[in-house]
Amino acid sequence: xxALVVDSSTPAVTAGLVRLGPDGLDVxxxxxxxxxxxxxxxxxxxxxAVLAESGVRAAELDAVVxxxxxxxxxxxxxxxxxxxxxxxxxDAPTYGVCSLDALAHAAxxxxxxxxxxxxxxxxxxxxxxxxxRPVTAPAVTAPAVxxxxxxxxxxxxxxxxxxxxxxxxxxxxxxxxxxxxxxASLAAxxxxxxxxxxxxxxxxxxxxxxxxxxxxxDRKSVLQ
Length: 224
Prior knowledge:
Layout: E1 2-7, E2 12-20, E3 25-34, H1 39-54, E4 63-67, H2 73-90, E5 94-97, H3 99-107, E6 113-118, E7 124-130, E8 133-134, E9 139-141, H4 143-153, E10 157-159, H5 161-165, H6 167-170, H7 183-188, H8 191-195
Parallel strand pairs: 1-4, 4-5, 6-10
Antiparallel strand pairs: 1-2, 2-3, 6-7, 7-8, 7-9
Helix pairs in contact: 1-2
């Protein structure tokens, strides 16, 4: 089975193609470009590139997997709209994964850990994990709040771009990798659902806060 993988929840514009076997998966091709301002320009060409590199036609895809965030409004929307559109056009089911879960999956060594990505505004998107499973809901707060929660849960280390950015506040060992949600982990977390032919999932974004750009409020006429 073939699954296309998309994540745009971080500055990394991520596209990949995986083949799911009975007992595992193989990453056939992937493209990851770190550019927080170019998700819209880069994602579609990267998807085309991974298909071309693998010699796979879009019509052969069995599923589309997307990272749901949390992430900034604009970049996250690019990935989810692209994934949903491809799923509809190809009549392929779509499946969503919390992007923080993918980071935890890739870093899990059995010990409690903190996953933190950069939320801008001097904040982080974060969650705590034990044995690769979330023990807190995703949140967006100041790094100090995440640090307090990590201490209470006995987190042994932290991963993610946000953990690197605020390592001095978190006061935890920070692993070099993964910085961004890996293609293999995004796919692995929904692999059983894909193999079982589970129904298509609505790709609901984890924004956690309102977008920076909002519609202007109605203004009174200067003539009134």
